[in-house]
Amino acid sequence: MYDAVLVPTDGSDGSATAAEHAIDLAERHDADLHALHVLETEQVVDQIPDFEDSSIFDRLADAGQQAVDDLREQAEDSDIDTVTTAVEQGVAHEEVVEYVKRHDIDVVVMATEGRTGPSRELIGSVTESVVRASPVPVLAVKVGGEP
């Protein structure tokens, strides 16, 4: 049924929980697992001259790479043959949907909440936008908050 499972990650505990579901789904269907982090830099680029040459960009890119590396590590004890990681730059929901199309993804597994604080609401809106725009099913994993 599923040959390729995508789990977008922001490195949060919520993303790790969604990854558990994605890993289980990939194992059950003998599917490849894809981990994607999107650097949402558009808002910052206009405010910081030479942003892409700055140490801030490097730190964000490093954090994104760490998020997908952590997910790869999380999947190491599974029976998944292939784990592909990627760090893209752009608008999160748009990049997730484009990744789905480029890599022939069959299902997306995402957390409904991510980081705490101001960005907490962001991951919920990203998930909602992906649900609305995705050409494939999206499994939204509720994490955090009240049961």
TrEMBL record:
UniProt xrefs under Gene3D superfamilies: HUPs
Task: Extract the signal peptide range.
Answer: none
InterPro entries, sorted? Rossmann-like_a/b/a_fold (IPR014729), Universal_stress_UspA (IPR006015), UspA (IPR006016)
The cross-references to SUPFAM superfamilies, in alphabetical order and at most eight, read: Adenine nucleotide alpha hydrolases-like
What are the residue boundaries of the UspA domain, all occurrences included?
1-142
Xref: Pfam families: Usp
PANTHER family for this protein:
STRESS RESPONSE PROTEIN NHAX, UNIVERSAL STRESS PROTEIN UP12
Q: Spell out the family assignment given in the record's similarity comment.
A: Belongs to the universal stress protein A family.
State the name under which the record lists this protein: Universal stress protein
Question: What are the leading ranks of the lineage?
Answer: Archaea, Methanobacteriati, Methanobacteriota, Stenosarchaea group, Halobacteria
